[in-house]
Amino acid sequence: MINDTSRSFNPSVTRRGLIAMAAAASTIGSDDAFGQNPHDTTCRLADGRSLGYRIYGSLTDFPVLYFHGTPGSRLEATLLAPFCHANGVCLIAVDRPGMGRSTFSHGHSHTSWPSDVVRLIDQLEQSTSFDRFGILAMSGGTSFALACAAMLPERISATAIVSPRTPGAPGVPKGVLDNALQQAATYPRLAEGVLRRQLRRSRRNPNVMPSQFKKFSAVDRNYIRRNGTVLRQAVAEASRCGTQGIVHDMALIRWPWRICLARIGIPVGLWIGSCDYSALPETLRFLQRNIPDSRATTVLGEGHFSIIDQAVAPAAIWLKSNSV
Fold first, then answer.
1. Beta carbons of 91 and 136 less than 8 angstroms apart
2. What is the DSSP letter of 171?
3. pLDDT value at position 54?
């Protein structure tokens, strides 16, 4: 077991924080879907925008919407889909506004996102026998998953979150890269430029792990080395139309959220690694205190990314068990 949880980090609140987040972006999709034959499509929203998504598997299986991390895109689900497919779950990975194939919106927020999701579910329901969907979220997708859990109980049966993030929430210390989120909200244009430059450097040197990843646990660094191609492609896709959508999303995941967690009436499952320097143990305590029907699992020896191999299959099984 790897136990690095005694270490603590306090990055400077400078451009270095933004560069650290940009470095994370540079390592995070592949068109190889591990045999799931995924296909990309879009959903036309009421205001004319497009919402891009990729289906991994068959909609005859229980449908679960996947909300990627930040920065990320639907391609990120390539790493999770095999665990879902093996347990009878069809994963539908959705690009949030301004990333991948989804149109940017200045009005994108926690209150608008559920409306986009409803439109997508309406479209998908024509191809599945299920009238309620599950949600699986990773890291920066946490708040968007909880917004849907709070506002769409008639359409969502349960929500599972792997490596949940609550940056800036009461009682939750700063994790790795949290200062970058703060600066994205304060200096969005600067953040967009830093991200563009870091992504260009990553394309020139795709096999070089940025020095900022020294702040992650050893188990995470090993996972990133093994899956760097997939992760890099997912973020490259996120920036398909520029970095504005990524920075907007980064700003939104900081607390406070416009979500009433106490009103969430569906089950919420939380999985966190004991060696995760981004999603700290206080994150679980905060969410459990505030979400009525929540359960938490700590996976010993796993980090922010490496937990995927250990937590996604149990999360898929749990989501399916709550589908009836």
1. yes
2. T
3. 97
Length of the chain: 324
Task: Give residue 136's region: left, alpha or beta (phi > 0; psi -120 to 50).
Answer: beta
Q: What is the mean pLDDT of each run of 10 residues along the chain (324 residues)?
A: 32 39 40 55 95 95 97 96 96 98 96 97 92 96 98 98 96 85 87 87 70 80 92 92 94 95 98 94 96 97 97 98 89
User: How do residues 207-254 score in pLDDT, each as one tens digit?
Assistant: 665 656 678 899 999 999 999 889 989 989 999 999 999 999 999 999
| Distance linking the first and last C-alpha atoms of the chain | 36
Q: How far apart are CA 175 and CA 22, in angstroms?
A: 16
**CA–CA distance, 286 with 118 (Å, rounded to integer):** 28
Side-chain half-sphere CA neighbours of 317 within 13 A:
7
Q: Could you tell me the fold of the domain covering 15-321?
A: Rossmann fold (3.40.50)
Is the preceding peptide bond at 167 cis, omega within 30 degrees of 0?
no
Q: How far apart are CA 129 and CA 32, in angstroms?
A: 28
Cβ partners under 8 Å of residue 166, min gap 6: 142, 143, 172, 255, 283, 286, 287
What 3-state DSSP class applies to 3? coil
Residues near 89 by beta carbon (within 8 Å), at least 6 away in sequence: 57, 61, 62, 63, 64, 134, 316, 319, 320
This prediction has a pTM of: 0.88
How far apart are the C-alpha atoms of 315 and 135, rounded to whole Å? 10
Report the 3 state secondary structure along 47-113.
Answer: CCCEEEEEEECCCCCEEEEEECCCCCCHHHHHHCHHHHHCCCEEEEEECCCCCCCCCCCCCCCCCCH
